[in-house]
Design goal:
18% of the residues lie in helices and 32% in strands.
Length: 185
């Protein structure tokens, strides 16, 4: 288990000798003539549940969120975050998404991508100390000081971790409390 985690971290930071479990290695010359990808972030508290299913204390079912990537001008590094467990269903033209980082308090899952696209999964539930999640940049005007501080802390942590993991700034951030479908264009 520890070895698999280390391999996943190696793939996460860009080393190519050891792929993450279940993923193909990234060729050393991959992207040599391609534009620098843009970092796009989607954050939710929870996904959409089947009718009659809701999370509650001690019960955290998978929600679902669909991310539709359109005809983007530059390739995308997709960062997906949620507090609750989410199955992220990514729909994208071939080559549009070059890397995915999915992070949350609970475990995240990513579906729909070519096996060659590196996917890093981080969560508190899996024992990752560097997990992160945020669904908004700032608290609403009617929220108290504690909620404002927590919202800022979570978003600042997301920005910090994304910079560490991608060596880039965020191009776009989209967030909602309960997400169902997001479009990236």
């Amino acid at each position: 288990m520890v070895l698999l985690r280390l391999l996943g971290v190696a793939a996460l930071i860009g080393l190519t000798a050891c792929p993450a479990p279940g993923r193909a290695p990234v060729p050393k010359d991959a992207g040599a003539n391609q534009p620098t990808p843009e970092v796009r972030v989607v954050g939710v508290y929870e996904g959409t549940y089947t009718p009659g299913v809701r999370h509650r204390a001690g019960f955290h079912p998978n929600g679902a969120v669909t991310v539709k990537v359109g005809d983007v001008k530059k390739p995308v590094v997709l960062v997906l975050t949620s507090y609750e467990p989410v199955v992220w269903k990514v729909e994208a033209p071939k080559g549009a998404v070059v890397r995915v980082i999915a992070s949350g308090y609970h475990k995240q899952t990513v579906e729909g991508l070519d096996e060659k696209v590196p996917v890093a999964l981080l969560s508190n539930e899996a024992g990752d100390k560097d997990y992160f999640y945020a669904r908004r940049k700032e608290a609403g005007p009617n929220e108290g000081d504690h909620e404002r501080a927590e919202t800022k802390r979570k978003y600042d942590r997301l920005v910090e971790r994304v910079r560490e993991l991608t060596k880039q700034d965020i191009k776009e951030f989209r967030g909602e409390y309960a997400g169902s479908t997001f479009e990236i264009k």
